């Protein structure tokens, strides 16, 4: 079986390639990774430290006028574990550098605008990591499944989304798209939990069961998303999410790698370091001198 850990790049094992077939995808697997839960959790903590340093570098760059940012797009059916990614993966970095947004049913104000309006407003500022818990992809997923707009309208959105993402990438946004996939059986177990644990009631929505009835239709809509919006500049990664520990490890690795690829340096000082050091050293001498004379003055004469 070989060494525990990633064998090759996680992105290569998880990225949607040509001919990707969601109906043949197994949400219980751990593509590219060898090992079990314990080893995965250890590895995730280690990579979390790398991620945290990279995030600080990004933030530092933003503070010095850098405009680059990162956008993690999370999609998946109910109970796929999107919230857990935000909590456990993004939770490993300084919250001051994070802009997390979740997208639900559009408000009246949002509905009065183009579907990308609320998305655009939620884009991370320079130096930040933005996280979308659901995203503009709902406008070709739930909207398509429920005929919320006519087919020619949602049908035109794939190309529009590609063009929109291309512009964001040109502006310096690194987009990491992850779709978490659970099997229907695992979703059933997780919904069951939500109904049997008072600490999970808040996550339950009676409509989750109605949505579940549309599962095959949703899978077709996801397949279309992968076929039509997995571009070179913003490819999709499909993450088997029956094992939460794997999904969290995988997103940690994808995000960390993406940020390593930005090759961010610590920003150079915008002041004269030697001069400032000399000033501080002089202060230290004055302090030491002052303390000495202060002590002498206080001594009984
Ligand atoms: P949750 O993520 O569990 O809070 O649920 C949010 C709900 O909002 C999901 O059922 C989504 O399908 C729905 N939703 C998100 N975006 C849209 C949209 N653009 N149009 C209609 N429903 C949406
Ligand atoms: Mg829900």
Characterization of the model:
By secondary structure, the chain is an alpha/beta fold. It has two domains: 5-268, 3-Layer(aba) Sandwich (Rossmann fold); 272-301. It is built from 13 helices and seven strands. The chain has helices at residues 10-14, 37-63, 82-88, 108-111, 117-121, 142-145, 151-155, 157-170, 184-196, 207-212, 215-229, 244-260, 273-298, and strands at residues 5-6, 33-34, 69-76, 98-102, 129-133, 173-181, 236-240. The chain has a five-stranded parallel β-sheet, with helices on both faces. Helix 2 (37-63) runs parallel beside helix 12 (244-260). The protein starts with a strand and ends with a helix. Mean pLDDT is 95; it is low at 297-301. The structure holds adenosine monophosphate (AMP) and magnesium ion (MG). Adenosine monophosphate (AMP) is lined by residues 78, 103-106, 134, 138-139, 142-143.
- CATH superfamily membership of the largest domain, which one? P-loop containing nucleotide triphosphate hydrolases
Count the beta strands. 7
Assign the CATH topology of the largest domain: Rossmann fold
Radius of gyration: 24 Å
Number of helices: 13
Termini separation comes to 82 Å
Largest sheet: 5 strands, parallel
Instruction: Give average pLDDT, whole number.
Output: 95
In order across it, which strands form the biggest sheet?
4-5-3-6-7
Strand coverage percent: 5-15%
The percent range for helix content is: 40-55%
Architecture (CATH level 2) name of the largest domain: 3-Layer(aba) Sandwich
CATH classification class of the largest domain: Alpha Beta
The ordered string of helix (H) and strand (E) elements is EHEHEHEHHEHHHEHHHEHH
Low-confidence stretches: 297-301
The general outline is globular
Q: How many distinct domains?
A: 2
């Amino acid at each position: 079986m070989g060494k525990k850990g990633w064998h090759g790049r996680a992105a290569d094992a998880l990225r949607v390639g040509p001919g990707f077939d969601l109906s043949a995808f197994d949400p219980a697997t751990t593509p590219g990774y060898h090992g079990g839960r314990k080893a995965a959790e250890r590895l995730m903590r280690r990579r979390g430290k790398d991620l945290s340093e990279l995030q600080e570098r990004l933030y530092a760059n933003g503070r010095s006028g850098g405009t680059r940012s990162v956008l993690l797009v999370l999609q998946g059916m109910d109970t796929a574990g999107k919230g857990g990614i935000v909590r456990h993966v993004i939770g490993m970095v300084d919250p001051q550098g994070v802009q997390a947004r979740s997208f639900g049913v559009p408000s009246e104000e949002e509905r009065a605008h183009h579907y990308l309006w609320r998305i655009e407003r939620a884009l991370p500022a320079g130096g930040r990591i933005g996280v979308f818990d659901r995203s503009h992809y709902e406008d070709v997923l739930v909207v398509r499944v429920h005929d919320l707009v006519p087919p020619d309208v949602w049908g035109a959105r794939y190309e529009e989304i590609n063009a929109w993402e291309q512009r964001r990438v040109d502006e310096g946004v690194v987009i990491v798209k992850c779709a978490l996939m659970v099997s229907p059986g695992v979703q059933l177990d997780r919904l069951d939990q939500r109904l049997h644990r008072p600490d999970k009631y808040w996550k339950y929505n009676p409509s989750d069961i109605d949505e579940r009835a549309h599962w095959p239709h949703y899978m077709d809509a996801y397949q279309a998303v992968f076929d039509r919006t997995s571009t070179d500049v913003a490819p999709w990664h499909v993450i088997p999410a029956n094992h939460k520990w794997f999904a969290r490890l995988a997103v940690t690795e994808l995000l960390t790698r993406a940020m390593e690829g930005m090759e961010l340096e610590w920003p150079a000082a915008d002041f004269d370091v030697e001069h400032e050091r000399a000033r501080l050293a002089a202060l230290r001498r004055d302090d030491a001198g002052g303390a000495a004379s202060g002590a002498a003055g206080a001594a009984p004469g």
